[in-house]
Amino acid sequence: MSKKLVFFDTETTGNTEGDFLCQLAFKNGKETFSALYKPEKKIPPEASAVHHITNKMVADKKSFAESGDKEKIKKLFEGESVIAVAHNAPFDLIMFKKEGIEPSHFICTLRVARYLDKEEKIERYNLQYLRYLLEIEIDATAHDALGDVLVLEKLFERLLKKVMGENELDKEGAIEKMIEISSHPSLLHTFKFGKHNGKRIEEVIKTDRGYLEWLLAQKLNGEGIDEDWIYTLKYYLEK
Fold this sequence. Notes:
Oligomer: single chain
């Protein structure tokens, strides 16, 4: 059975497990979908500053569960032949899971981009940074869910070609490789923040192990969703 790619993005009340969906967009072949929903908590101003969705805009909307869209979307994304594609997919998948939707297969373009950047030349991996770094020319509004989906589709095409070329795979084989890369956290190698910015983690652990232990505790006890850093810090601390 041939696989079908569905590109999607969510906009939410924040970036923790305690946050909720307020916009969903996806592109399924030529079909595009975008809708606003009233989340279970108020949209804070810091979230509105990113996606420009306000509480007034969703005041008269139904929640995702009550909207009538859920069953159609659940059936689509949970289809055995469907591959859900998102940037930083683990976060979007947590938002989906809270709504009772669990896709059978997924590709995370952020994890694939990190995997391909073997020499860590890319400073940041967020979607809009990659859009302009790779000079992806597309008419799409940043941080609007549908706009991000259109950028995501173009980014995926670029990454797919690189996976095919570097691994001598056909399109189907490269997609399977991208699913495999996406299925586990990324192992990071360099700090790009904090007092050890620019240093290799393998060097820092020799001189400042306590910092890695402190950072891991922060990640484990925080509300953020940061599987890659938790995986990385455990890896180096347990070596």
